[in-house]
Design a protein that fits this description.
By secondary structure, this protein is an all-alpha fold. It contains 12 helices and no strands. The termini are far apart. The C terminus is likely disordered.
């Protein structure tokens, strides 16, 4: 009995140790799981697939709560690791996934009539966006001791754009319901959309400079480079939602501009897809970089889903049936990627956290996991 009790205690202790290790190394960009699940849920609901949309919403909401708890735990118990992420230009911009994930969940809940919840999430996300919008560039870029900083630019820098546009989408989503603050919501939507457009240009310049001026190894082309396409696609979605907003001074002044720009951003997002697919082929097929689960794979799932939803909404706002048909077809590509990535994540977590060492895992947690902070490089 004593031996059995001791064995159980030892097993529990090892499990606790693996869990603590996982929390310590939690990548700040893991809220891309919430973003990907939520936006595909939105697309499924728009396309009439109710059951799948509800399933995706459940995954989105549960993962949101779990990641909030794990992030709070990490902040309290491993503050040095969090500071490390904030000061690393390769990983710091991953914190913007918290904002985007919050707003994507809010937008999906608004489609089910939970407008007050969406409004509350928008307030939290909006304030966080304003704060991190100054904090992250300062801690990760301007105060960085690594020079030149542009050498560290990567696809995660586009997540700042996604966060900005998610605020616009959320504000536009609840505007029809809260008539008393319609003008204020219009200001928020147009303001954050406009900021997002300029941030996209800035991120594009910095990332392009990194690609052209410094050696590019296959291992450097990480999944977050897909966010360049996702950021363009969410700019389309935000623009389409603003175009649909009721008359307000800010909307009236920019409606034509935003409508035209949204079509251009959709075209650019479409143009980027073959380039990103080719980059993946060059990385994994030509140079043999193993395609294994890593947290940043959710940075591929979200852009796929966002591109589909952007097409559906752009058709609705500007009467572009060809764009809508592309979006409806692409939605299933996004869902397939979501299902495969979710299955890989579950297997990975079981092997690296749940199972004891020697049973489908090793005592050391491998890179690229739920526990790794390095894949954002």
């Amino acid at each position: 009995m004593t031996s059995t009790a001791g064995s159980r205690t030892d097993t529990t202790g090892r499990l606790r140790g693996r869990l603590q290790h996982a929390v310590h190394g939690l990548t700040p960009g893991y809220f891309a799981l919430v973003m990907g699940s939520g936006i595909i849920s939105v697309g499924m609901l728009l396309d009439g697939h109710i059951a799948l949309s509800v399933l995706l919403l459940v995954v989105c909401a549960v993962s949101f709560v779990v990641l909030l708890v794990l992030t709070a735990w990490r902040l309290l118990a491993y503050r040095d690791a969090v500071v490390d992420d904030f000061t690393d230009p390769r990983r710091g911009f991953g914190f913007f996934t918290v904002i985007a994930g919050t707003n994507v969940l809010g937008v999906r809940l608004a489609m089910d009539g939970h407008h007050e919840v969406t409004a509350g999430l928008l307030v939290v996300a909006g304030v966080t966006w304003l704060v991190l919008g100054y904090v992250v560039p300062w801690t990760a870029v301007l105060s960085s001791e690594q020079r030149p900083v542009v050498a560290t630019a990567n696809g995660t820098w586009f997540i700042w754009v996604v966060a900005s546009q998610s605020v616009a989408v959320s504000a536009a989503s609840i505007e029809p319901v809260f008539a008393a603050v319609r003008d204020e919501l219009a200001v928020v939507a147009v303001f954050s959309w406009s900021v997002g457009v300029f941030l996209y240009a800035a991120a594009g310049i910095f990332v392009s400079a990194r690609l052209m001026l410094y050696d590019l190894r296959p291992v450097d082309l990480t999944p977050p480079y897909w966010v360049a396409m996702g950021a363009s696609a969410i700019t389309v979605l935000a623009g389409a939602r603003i175009v649909e907003m009721a008359d307000a001074p800010m909307v009236d002044a920019t409606r034509g501009l935003i409508a035209g720009a949204s079509v251009s951003f959709w075209a650019f997002a479409t143009w980027l897809i073959p380039a990103l697919v080719a980059a993946g082929w060059w990385r994994h097929r030509t140079h043999g970089v193993p395609l294994v689960y890593e947290a940043t794979l959710w940075s591929v799932v979200f852009p796929l889903g966002m591109y589909a939803v952007a097409g559906l909404y752009l058709d609705q706002a500007n009467d572009l049936p060809v764009v809508g048909a592309v979006g409806a077809t692409w939605l299933w590509v996004a869902f397939a990627a979501w299902a495969l990535t979710l299955a890989a994540m579950i297997v990975h977590v079981v092997r690296t956290v749940v199972l004891p060492a020697g049973r489908g895992t090793t005592s050391a947690i491998p890179s690229g996991a739920v526990v790794s902070r390095r894949p954002d490089r």
